[in-house]
Structures are given as structure tokens and as C-alpha cells.
Amino acid sequence: MLSILIPTYRLDCSAFVRELAIQAEALGIDYEIIVSDDGSPDEESKAGNRIINSWPHCRFVELDRNGGRAHNCNHLASLAQHDYLLFLDSDLMPCDDRFVARYVQAARPDTVIGGTIRFRVPGCSESEAMSNLRYVYARVREERPAEERNRDPYAHFPGFSCLIPRDIFNRVRYCEEITSYGYEDTLFGKELQARGIALRYIDNPVFHDITDSSETFLKKTETGLTNARRYQHLMEGHVRILDIQQRLKRAGLQPAVRLFFALFGGALRRNLLGQHPRLRLFDLYKLGYLARLDHRLSSGKAI
Questions:
Q1: Architecture of the domain delimited by 2-211
Q2: What sections of 184-299 are H helices per DSSP?
Q3: Tens digits of residue pLDDT in 145-171
């Protein structure tokens, strides 16, 4: 019936796996849970995850090298024994005890099912959390109910929590060209759309505890933008900020955007790392950063 597949890196997710196992056991279904560590150098997290091997129907796999999340997901799928693959990020926790049951009830052989997400910053009040750029972005741009997501299902593929029939995954798979952070889920969603494979969302939320600082999230964003520009031929039409940058370039406005970023990029960054980060300024920062990357590539320089 169900293979629950969890790629992880530098994170002890044993508590998450334990909760998933309890829920699956209560349903009386055939299931397995496989966690795969992507060559993490963090021995403490790996030691914590090894307890997973002592639980029925659960195992923890340790890869020898870091191949990236796309490779890890494909590897997990190759190990899976059941017909439905439930991919989950490792830094999650179900919001209630019906999480696994909702996916089992929604399973269809011709449809990918996506879930929803809620965010929190451990140990912080709401007002304190609003100084974290990752939290501000997540609350406004990512915490969306299933009804809203279903209006444009392929816009943001929910790689954090999605149920994929094995036959569909074997036809699509993750693009392993991307080995660093960012946009592997975008490409997967694009391929589903191109093949006419149905993607539907259900209100089945997980909690995501935000542990990244604003600075860490900004660095990850820059890495993601670098991937988006490097693989522009694959991303067109599916990464909005990249499409905007390319339209500005065709209109001859990219030099002005680069000048703006050179003059005000530092000020934008100070806001984003400060106490009151603003998403409009975050969008401007990303646009300027992309324009600078594009200019470097056009000049024959590495990015």
C-alpha cells in the first residue's frame, strides 16, 4: 500500500518517524518508512536516526556521498516496495493524528496528491517570529489552503508533502542535474503538467519548525536563484521572478536593474536581515541578484 519516504540531511527526524509509524499502525495497512541521509557529515543527527532501524517496518539508510535532494528522492523511490510513495521533508510534524489516514483515503492511481503546511518558530512569540525573513515569507507566500492551491496546482509543487503513485513517479522522477538547494520541486511539477498528470491538493497540514535565521534563508535563496538562472531553459514559465527578469532584459532595462542593485542592494539586505523584513524589498533583492547573475553569464563568467 504505502511507502513513506523521507530524505534528510543533518537532521534527527526520529520523533517525526515515530509519529508516522503510530498513525500507519493504527490504520492496519501495509506500510514502510524509509529515511535516507544524504551523506551528512553530522554524526550526532545520524546517531539519533539509527534508532529508526529498531522499529517494525522502518529503516534508516546512510548514503556515502552528498548527491543532492533530487538524487536522494530518486534513491528512496528505488528502495520502496509499495504502490504509493508519500514523500515528506524531514523537518515536519503532523498537525493531528489523521495525517496518514487522509492521504490513504485520497490515494488515486492516476493523481498526485499534495498537502498543506503551517509554520512556527520554536520558542518565539508571533511578534518575535515576524523578525525572521523565512517566517514572514512562509506565512504570506506558502501557508495557503488546498482550495487556493487547486486554482493553479502546478505553480508550486508541494515536494515537502506529496503522495505519488509509483507508476507516475517512475515516468517522471526528479531531475538530478540539480545537486544544490532550490527548484528541483519546480521541475518535477513542470514535468507533471507537461505530461498531463493530475495534481490535486487536500487540506492535510504539517507543522514546519523554522530554524533558519534570516541570513541563512537569504543565502539559500541566492543559491536557488543561481540554479534558476543556470537551468533557465528548464525553468521558463515556472519561476515567476526569473520570467520577470527575462522580460526586463528583453525590454533593455536590465542595466538599470543592475545599477539599482549595485546602489541599493546593501540597503535591501539590511532590511531583510533586520527586525522588520518586507517582502516587496525581498522581491526587489531577488530581481537585482538575478540581473547580476545574468550579466555575469552573458559576460562569460562563472556563477
A1: Alpha-Beta Complex (3.90)
A2: 184-194, 214-230, 232-235, 240-250, 254-272, 279-298
A3: 999 999 999 988 999 999 999 999 999
